[in-house]
Amino acid sequence: MEYTVDREMASCSLVRFGRWISRFKFPYTQAKPFSSPSPFSSSAGLRDADSAAPGGPPPIRVSLTDSAGRGVFATRKIGAGELIHTAKPLVAHPSLSSIHHVCNFCLQKLQRYANVDSDARRASFCSEECEQHSKVFHDVEMEADWSDYDNYCRERGFKYPLLVKRLACMVISGAMSSDHLDILQPSRLSTDMVLELEEGYSLLRKALINANITDERMLFLTQEWYTGVLARIRINAFRIELAGGYEDLHSLAAACVEAEAAVGNAVYMLPSFYNHDCDPNTHIIWINNANAKLKALRDVDPDEELRICYIDASMDYDARQTLLHRGFGFICKCARCSYGD
Q: Out of 2.60.40.10, 1.10.10.10, 3.20.20.70, 2.170.270.10, which CATH number does the structure's domain 1-314 have?
């Protein structure tokens, strides 16, 4: 099982995000930006730089907070509705129910769906560009038979092992280092959880071995690696819901409910540093594909922390606290919760 409270339990109101940036300890003062492998470094395809609208770098810095580890702060005044920055996924994967209906790379909905019977193993793409970018994982993926692994995920309702599979293929192809997600905070997995994941690890390794992937190319693929990556993905993955042109919050929420727009899941670098608030000043949206946009919900002052809501903000106090504690492992003490609202 996936030991988290999925965003499917909340309404599609742009506030369902599966991560909590926990309490890391770093040798930096709060005023000093967090130093790390840059989330703005550029590489192919979905891993291109997080960026702002044309005109300069994003008006943000990543620093330590007083109580919640890392956070994202404004470096200048940000106006309501302003695009703060965009972000492309480090890794993304369609849901199994959408795999023949969306681009296998950017998750954009296809104009023409693949024939499920004749193209069961063939991936579909929305453009030649996406097909070219997909080579960072697709060539390796196509060498293996994933039917047992996909059935394992389908029967248990798992989504995140699909991201681990794709990440493993990216490492094997040389497009990504095996420790690329180490900067992200992992969730805590109990012994029972780890035992539950053993089958997925065995099926992943079996599929690659049967595809004649050499041991040398799979040196990184230990059970410890599999479990560690899944622990990070578990609380840093976003459920992708396409808005299809709606960028204001209320129209977008209505469109998501009507269209049942969830198409897959993805992990990002910079968006994973945003902390939670039940009355957020920022929201994240996806218009036509997995490229995320983070926009201000209201005016934000310089040095104010930017926060998103991980769950459905319309729930009452008790429901929010229960969901956040069960799903993300913390008791929310934001201003709204402090008033018992």
A: 2.170.270.10
